[in-house]
Specification:
The chain is an alpha/beta fold and 256 residues long. It is 47% helix and 12% strand. Strand 2, helix 3 and strand 3 form a beta-alpha-beta unit. The longest helix is centred in the N-terminal third of the chain and has 22 residues. The chain is globular. The relative contact order is 0.19. Bound molecules: zinc ion.
Amino acid sequence: MKDRMTANFSSELIMQHPLVAGAAGLSAAAALAMWYSVLYSGSEIVAPVIKTIHPHKAVALTFDDGPTPGFTDRVLDILRQHDSHASFFLIGSHVKQHPELVVRMLAEGHTIGNHTWDHHHHGVWHGEAYWRDQLQRTSSALADITGRKPALFRAPMGFKTPPQARAVRQCAMRYIAWRVRAWDTLKISPHTICRIVTSQIRPGDIVTLHDGLEPVRRNCSQESTVQALPEILKILKSRGLASMSLEQALEFPVYQ
Ligand SMILES: [Zn+2]
């Protein structure tokens, strides 16, 4: 009993020592900084990211996880009806299945970017070779179909890691993040999506929406996004904001 008390007392004393307490605080801060750099899409600790565009009278709507028939084609119809352009971050395995939608995106003036081959949620635990393969397979599939190799990459869920950033650099690509996120992969109404986007959006913002279903969400729907889009575009227009593609908005080439 006395021994246990002495041991507890000693360990408390050790923890209270300024050097030990300082080291514990530092490692907690380092762990926090590491997770912030991985999980926060706008963090630039791991690599520089683009979250905004320069034009003051425009915004850049971006759509992730497609192409997915039933949603992507309707998003393209709506963009055409509103004379608007956007950018699509595509999943390579979907590109392979629906090349006609990718061809249509480019024919109608939209920008295409790389969003990995299979959007695997465990990707953050993988090394440089895994990420190089994910990027190169997707870019090759896009180049085979369109003759264009994207220079823009959007990380799945916006999560970045140092091995991923090295692969992105080696593949001569840049990260595109966002300032406004629609949260439209959650089960929310078109009205809520519209409110989330239009209550936050400012000139120059990059906005993330979804026209597709990543492989683990195969039985879900992006119907709410499709239904929200006409109202979002109408409100943007009423504020004098055009929706531009990233090729129109950025000051560097979006293809290699
Ligand atoms: Zn995604």
